[in-house]
Amino acid sequence: MDMSLVAAIQGSTALAIGIIIGLGALGACIGIGIMGSKFLESAARQPELVPMLSGRMFLLAGLIDAAFIIGLAIALFFAFANPLLSAIAG
């Protein structure tokens, strides 16, 4: 097994992991920020709808965070059990 090829795969994987986690976190933060601002705006306009709106806001916050957590799990999979390295080992 050529060690320079292994090093190249590990380096590229590390960059990809950083991009996956960084862009996922950035997207989740922007999404929750926009959603929270729209919630506050709609709560100020119609305060009687706050109980219904807060339930929907928390549901959407969970879905936005779930997308980030799935990306994090995929990144950790590539960090600890890289299938690209097993492809060149055999």
TrEMBL record:
InterPro entries: ATP_synth_csu_bac/chlpt, ATP_synth_F0_csu, ATP_synth_F0_csu_DDCD_BS, ATP_synth_F0_csu_sf, ATPase_proteolipid_c-like_dom, F/V-ATP_Csub_sf
Topology relative to the membrane: Multi-pass membrane protein
Subcellular location: Cell membrane
Alphabetical keyword list: ATP synthesis, Cell membrane, CF(0), Hydrogen ion transport, Ion transport, Lipid-binding, Membrane, Transmembrane, Transmembrane helix, Transport
Major localization class: membrane
Feature type site, description Reversibly protonated during proton transport: 65
CDD domains to which the protein is assigned, alphabetical: ATP-synt_Fo_c_ATPE
Start and end residues of each V-ATPase proteolipid subunit C-like domain: 15-77
GO cellular component: plasma membrane; proton-transporting ATP synthase complex; proton-transporting two-sector ATPase complex, proton-transporting domain
UniProt-listed Gene3D superfamilies: F1F0 ATP synthase subunit C
A GO term, aspect molecular function: lipid binding
Pfam families: ATP-synt_C (PF00137)
Transmembrane segments: 12-36, 57-81
Function in brief: F(1)F(0) ATP synthase produces ATP from ADP in the presence of a proton or sodium gradient. F-type ATPases consist of two structural domains, F(1) containing the extramembraneous catalytic core and F(0) containing the membrane proton channel, linked together by a central stalk and a peripheral stalk. During catalysis, ATP synthesis in the catalytic domain of F(1) is coupled via a rotary mechanism of the central stalk subunits to proton translocation. Key component of the F(0) channel; it plays a direct role in translocation across the membrane. A homomeric c-ring of between 10-14 subunits forms the central stalk rotor element with the F(1) delta and epsilon subunits.
Family affiliation: Belongs to the ATPase C chain family.
The protein, known as: ATP synthase subunit c
Species of the source: Arenimonas donghaensis DSM 18148 = HO3-R19
Lineage: Bacteria, Pseudomonadati, Pseudomonadota, Gammaproteobacteria, Lysobacterales
Gene name of this polypeptide: atpE
